[in-house]
Amino acid sequence: MNPIITAFERSPDGGKGLARDTRVRWALEEVGQPYDVRLVSFQALKEPAHLALTPFGQIPTFENGNFTLFESGAIVLHIAEHYEGLLPKDSVARTRAITWMFAALNTVEPPILDLVTANIFEGDKPWAQERTPLVKDRIRVRLRQLSSYLEGADWLDGAFSAGDLMMVSVLLRLRMSGMLDEYPSLAAYVSRGEARPAYRRAFAAQLAVNAPAS
Amino acid sequence: MNPIITAFERSPDGGKGLARDTRVRWALEEVGQPYDVRLVSFQALKEPAHLALTPFGQIPTFENGNFTLFESGAIVLHIAEHYEGLLPKDSVARTRAITWMFAALNTVEPPILDLVTANIFEGDKPWAQERTPLVKDRIRVRLRQLSSYLEGADWLDGAFSAGDLMMVSVLLRLRMSGMLDEYPSLAAYVSRGEARPAYRRAFAAQLAVNAPAS
């Protein structure tokens, strides 16, 4: 039995790979674990069957036998801990890689989510034009720090890890804004992530759902 | 040698316990591990010595011998994994507790951080009055879901865990807004967290720094 993840029946981004199932697909591809996908409609996200998997009505979830998880961060960490390939064996290096997962999710992603909010949920508000540059400047604080930390390194802390997987996934949300291009070392870092065969398979798999070839 | 954490020399909240060192202090108190604190000025956060600990110039950091960590989530998880008392022994229950840590940090906290931004960084903007209710409504979506999940339970998933420690810490940011009181089961949940002797010691320790008795 393969693990089963949930994904949007139709992703709001139309197949750009920004829905959080892509992070989990990517992790499963990196470790070479086949998986099954159950697609969920927006309506079904609010129904008891899905809420029994996650109280927040989100995707992805992860089911493996009688054991269910939610939160893409927790799922990726679980995959990284139970299969080979996403965490170093050395315990200090392993803890550092996990630190980068939290940094991606709790320091870098929140201001980026605020930009998503500004563009999508508040894009028609009278303050949108004046406020968006403030939101972007808060993101730039984090991009500048991360860029300065990375310098010429390929990955955050030695070899590619679950920390990079999460950081690249978070930064990909900025692709459309053009902001990544302001920081060439970050743009190159994200491109290195996207070039990984495991990412390409994950991206293709979500695209096949969201923008099937006609 | 005790582990050393960093904290603000003077917390922006004046001792309300909302700076993220409180989460780490609480975790260390729960597991009974004494710790030392190095206080850092706002200026020093941006200096090379601190940036060598964390590229994002934040507090807290965690040093234990030659091993350093940043990100309160990562530090709390490290403490929970290396000392007894914050994670169940059963592997499924342990993974679920970690899931709740991620839910606190990546699903519940981001909209709450947006309210902090609205109140503090954008409190003087022309849109503040009209926008704040939208921000609060996005928080209420999560509070309603969490409240509905908790029902009458004392903690999120059986016994108190690192997941509860993080969720209570995140919800405490809403205390001043009065929003917790709209969800009596959540208000009671947060109060149960605050009543724990380990939380009280952690709170008192940060208060002693930020509002020393005259």
From TrEMBL, chains A, B:
Signal peptide: none annotated. Gene3D superfamilies: 1.20.1050.10, Glutaredoxin (3.40.30.10). Pfam families: GST_N (PF02798). It comes from the Bacteria. Residues 8-87 form the GST N-terminal domain. Residues 90-214 form the GST C-terminal domain. PANTHER family: GLUTATHIONE S-TRANSFERASE GSTA, GLUTATHIONE S-TRANSFERASE-RELATED. This is Glutathione S-transferase family protein.
